[in-house]
Write a structure and sequence with these properties.
Number of strands: 0
Structural class: mainly alpha
Strand content: under 5%
Keywords: Membrane, Transmembrane, Transmembrane helix
Number of helices: 8
Protein name: Glycerophosphoryl diester phosphodiesterase membrane domain-containing protein
Radius of gyration: 19 Å
Distance between the termini: 19 Å
Low-confidence stretches: none
Mean pLDDT: 88
Helix content: over 70%
Largest sheet: none
């Protein structure tokens, strides 16, 4: 999985570079930290699916082309809606997890270490929720990318065929990298604020964007592998 993702970066460096530059520029100008990154993470996943499944290449001439090599339109709107739907479901699952913890008195909002507790529990809830959801119905995304069968029933059928392989790929890929990135960003973030120079803030934002786009690429790679594997059976 890592090897395939690395080859995608090398072949389609134009797309990934443009995505990171655009994200950094928007977030520095608009201070919309997180929103722009989420949008372009979804776009990165869409184009990554098409690179793997349709052998498309996005060079400097048109790094974010809206037309595939066969002349068909890239399903940006359809993919975005499904990506957003899965994101909302994941958010609801995480929220339900915190409500359950609160219901059973596991979290004490008055404790001195409440922020640390929320962070730890957030990871413990979010990781299984993300991996489980993506492993079961996540192939709806690569299916949409190539205009295949996007029904949840079909996605679940593919998910059950490749569940454990996909689960492992998600854990050792995007999840492991995202957690490592959170730790690194948590440390470096203490040294960057509004009083820092624009060069330092831009460098930090580039780092943040990379640690979002790369896990998104790995997640898309894992889902495309699962999709192709399930469809070949």
């Amino acid at each position: 999985m890592y090897g395939r993702a690395l080859s995608l970066f090398k072949t389609n460096i134009a797309l990934y570079t443009i995505v990171i530059v655009v994200v950094v520029m928007f977030e520095l100008m608009m201070q919309a930290v997180g929103i722009v990154t989420l949008v372009f993470a979804g776009l990165t996943m869409l184009y990554t699916h098409r690179m793997i499944q349709l052998d498309e290449v996005y060079g400097w001439a048109d790094p974010l082309s809206t037309t595939g090599k066969d002349g068909s339109k890239v399903p940006i709107i359809g993919y975005s809606l499904r990506f957003l739907a899965l994101f909302i479901i994941l958010t609801l699952m995480i929220t339900a997890g915190f409500i359950t913890l609160d219901r059973f008195g596991v979290l004490d909002p008055n404790a001195e270490t409440v922020d640390l507790a929320f962070a730890i529990w957030g990871v413990l809830i979010a990781v299984p929720a993300f991996c489980g959801l993506m492993a079961v119905v996540g192939t709806v995304l690569p299916a949409c990318a190539e205009r295949g069968d996007t029904s949840l029933i079909s996605a679940a059928g593919r998910g059950f065929k490749t569940f454990w392989k996909t689960l492992v790929n998600l854990v050792i890929g995007p999840v492991a990298l995202a957690i490592t990135g959170m730790i690194v960003l948590g440390y470096t973030g203490w040294h960057v604020d509004e009083t820092s120079g624009w060069i330092l803030r831009a460098a930090y934002q580039i780092f943040v964007s990379i640690l979002t786009i790369v896990p998104a690429t790995l997640a898309a790679t894992a889902l495309s592998i699962a999709y192709l594997d399930a469809e070949s059976r």
